[in-house]
């Protein structure tokens, strides 16, 4: 992986999609790629990007290159095609919700690069497998495979740069936030008023932390490696590119949440609601997991999102095919326990990936319910746009399949700053002080690596007054 995270990662348009926890029932493969053939973005991120305006503009682009039926993989892996991200604001616009917040993150609303050579690591078989698309003939594909194999060998030989030791637990985050504690708690009370009035059942609200970006071309790659090492996740992602002004941009995600999987017509989404911190003490750790499973509040939140996701899938799935395959299960990660549900369905005849995304994006677990009203309240109460945070990162393959995460636990490296959003679901019995503290607790694990690499420098941000 190291040779895809170096100082030239943005120049090479590096892509890392990694299941850092190893194989499970939902994510068996990790991917490395760089040097895409072309890219699409909502405003040209590089001089060579093709401009697109709306999500529907992807449909003709996706149709340009298709895979012969005989060559389609049976296991749902990504063998080549588009990889990139959708921003939260793009999803909100799909539902007619226009952002009123300040948009100070200089990224396109979406960007998709076409990778015609991909290295896939099969965690079940413990081996690398390389694939290339014959866009320019067999010889060109062979050369791309050889170059990719050299990159993999180089990555395996690479000696990683040392990183500082983590600061002590409980150390104060050095970044600036867009809220003071009082302002965030006031926002939570406003949201509770909407719940009490019957506008919504829940809404997911976030605050943002900001750091000055170090003058280090390898910063984004080092940050992702720290995320990867300290917060292994099923749907980790690293995207890097150089924009039209010559600035390196990157998205580093340690997401544990699957937004959409589509293969051979089968659709799966796995929303997460409910989090508890893990403890090094085995007894305390089991108690935290049990408390999460026993929490009526967390169970009710997840149940509401399951209903929302079923309704969204019902727009594009075959009638009668939608099933709640797992209503609520515990999944444990390095630092937290989560409760997760699994909903599946069969895509209806005549529907495609673009239809599926338009019907379901953004994911209900990071908006609230009902979705449209929750997004309107988010636009009213949050002072800044979310950009890639709470959007989706992943791939749209040439065989018609797709795999997208929910972009939580995600840092954005753009312009001269580093951005990290954290949020939580607000319901009728939410306590404002506890909700604020939860955002700090969630931020702590990811903020520490950013602190280390940014030299623990103070950033500047103006807290937003919630009237």
Question: Secondary-structure map with pairings?
Answer:
Elements: E1 15-18, E2 29-33, E3 38-41, E4 50-51, H1 58-64, E5 81-86, H2 88-94, E6 110-115, E7 117-122, E8 127-132, H3 138-157, E9 176-177, H4 181-196, E10 202-212, H5 219-230, E11 235-242, E12 248-255, E13 258-263, E14 266-270, E15 272-277, H6 282-294, H7 296-314, E16 323-332, E17 336-346, H8 353-360, E18 368-369, H9 371-381, E19 392-397, E20 402-405, E21 410-414, E22 417-426, H10 432-453
Parallel strand pairs: 3-4
Antiparallel strand pairs: 1-2, 1-11, 2-7, 3-6, 5-6, 5-19, 7-8, 9-10, 10-18, 10-22, 11-12, 12-21, 13-14, 13-20, 14-17, 15-17, 16-17, 19-20, 21-22
Helix pairs in contact: 4-10, 5-10
Structural descriptors:
467 residues; Anthranilate synthase; eleven-stranded mixed beta sheet; 29% helix
Mean pLDDT: 88
Poorly predicted ranges (pLDDT <50, ≥5 residues)? 457-467
Shape: globular
How many individual helices? Answer: 10
Quaternary assembly: single chain
In CATH terms, the superfamily of the domain at 85-111 and 175-453 is Anthranilate synthase
